[in-house]
Design goal:
Elements (H helix, E strand, L loop, with lengths): L1 E3 L23 E7 L5 E7 L7 E6 L19 H4 L1 H6 L2 E6 L16 H17 L4 E6 L2 H11 L7 E5 L25 E6 L12 H7 L6 E6 L22 H14 L4
């Protein structure tokens, strides 16, 4: 386990620090692809300024509904959604996935399904067509269930790595799926767990992270990266503008994730 103090990350094993500027200038491109029979999957595609070194598929928390095509981006304040341009600014090709067409109200009750993993496989394939680089699944909060499910279920067309931030390990008031419903021992790709030490959400306690890391028994590389500090909360504990969403630490956390991805050898 490694602890990261705010404003000063020392990722020795991962190599040099990345302090790339994320200006928010990268433009969103909405894509829609077919997945299962009669089903389509929409996602935002954000390209870096140069050739990407890796691709990331970002899974938002909550109900996962971005409502692309509605004219207003859902979950815009979510940690991963609000930082999509920052990831692109660090040389990553970024896809932010919406709920599929057969789940117009969101991903509740669907995140651990085989069908969801099939949709993820299709997005991985689409990104591989865009750039022949490793594709990582990155989830936050309830999005960690989606990311872990994809990594556990997919063998053919599988991701190259997994990142879980603010992982849901306990049942919450509104949603019952957790990463405990996923066969974490089936994951066989490098796995990074990122968590805030002061996360006060009842579904994502920091105290659960050491045991969570041990559950990934078959991965070639794993690490827990812990943060503290940041800004005072401006939302409820389980919302994005609190320690749960790394408020005030966006640049540091995104840089740490990008560093770890870039430092991981391609399998």
């Amino acid at each position: 386990m490694r602890s990261a103090a705010p404003r000063a990350l020392a990722l020795i094993a991962a190599g040099a620090l990345l302090f790339g500027a994320a200006t928010g200038r990268a433009a969103d491109d909405t894509r829609t692809i077919p997945t299962r029979p009669g089903v389509t999957q929409a996602f935002l595609l954000v390209k870096p300024s140069g050739p990407p070194v890796a691709s990331v598929i970002l899974f938002a928390g909550g109900n996962g509904l971005l409502a692309l095509g509605s004219g207003r981006l859902g979950l815009a304040g979510n940690f991963l959604v609000r930082n999509r341009a920052r990831f692109a600014g660090l040389g990553l090709l970024v896809a932010v996935v919406d709920a599929p067409s057969d789940h117009p109200t969101g991903l509740d009750g669907f995140r651990t399904s085989a069908e969801h993993a099939e949709d993820i496989r299709a997005v991985i394939a689409a990104l591989k067509q865009e750039a022949p680089v490793p594709v990582w699944l990155v989830g936050t909060s309830m999005g960690t269930v989606s990311a872990a499910n994809g990594a556990a279920r997919l063998t053919t067309g599988a991701p190259d790595g997994l990142v879980l931030t603010s992982t849901v390990t306990r049942v919450g008031r509104q949603r019952i799926e957790t990463v405990g419903d996923v066969r974490l021992d089936a994951v066989r790709v490098p796995t990074l767990i990122v968590h805030h030490k002061n996360d006060a959400c009842r579904a994502t306690p920091y105290a659960d992270t050491p045991a969570l890391l041990r559950d990934f028994k078959q991965v070639p590389r794993r690490e827990l990266l812990a943060f503290d500090g940041g800004d005072p909360p401006q939302s409820a504990p389980c919302e994005a503008r609190a320690a749960h969403g790394f408020l005030g630490l966006d640049a540091e956390v995104v840089a740490a994730i990008a560093t770890w991805i870039k430092a991981t050898p391609r399998s």
